[in-house]
Write a structure and sequence with these properties.
The protein is built from 8 helices and 2 strands, in the order αααααββααα. It is globular, with a radius of gyration of 22 Å. Helices cover 61% and strands 3% of the residues. The longest helix is centred in the first third of the chain and has 29 residues, at 58-86.
Length: 251
Amino acid sequence: MLVNSIIRIKCISLLTCIMLTACSSVPELESSAVAPIVPLPDYHQELGIFSAYDDPWEGFNRRMYYFNAKADEYVLLPIVDSYKQITPDVVETGLSNFFNNLGEISTFVNSVLQLKFSVAGETFGRFFINSTLGMVGLLDVATPMGLAEQNEDFGQTLGFWGVGAGPYLVLPLLGPSSLRDATGLAFDALADQQTLDVLGMKSEEELYLSLINSIDARARLPFRYYASGSAFEYEYLKLLYKKFREIQVAR
């Protein structure tokens, strides 16, 4: 998607700036040194980009970040690897398309709530075409026809109506979020549940489908904890997430 590509470019640019500014520091002046003309603030960290966003729950967030990294390494990724090994590529693609098609319902609802009627119309068109010509969403027929996939969630809807993001929050297994976006997740989960209820599925079938959806979502996410090799990975991810959400709400 063009929008996602633009967002990725902006995020990469932001990350480059972060890496450049993170290397700077304020050295202590020796007694014989000339005092700087421009006075420095008492707290030099206020000059850094890492202080751009509040993190009042940093202690909890860092512990949860470490927990997620270990859960990812020892539980989620082994399951994902097994899933990818035993699932043919064509089946894996079909399942991804199917879950994306179900997600169009939540995008449609949130587009209407944000008064983005053109996005809502395009999303409805995608859902209708992929649900019929695309064999209940197993095939993505709409994208080649020029109907681009959109992404709208209730966290963005709250932001559209002026609700602030609130404190940064790392959720168990789900990763980076905020107080507003975590609230939005609950609404989107309810919308997804209503979709499953309309399909008339049994509770164990819903559980199995949700499990496959979670595995598929993790399989499509290239992020790996601590793969950056940076001691500031937590800060980088926080900044990228917050900036990414600002872009999503503003567009």
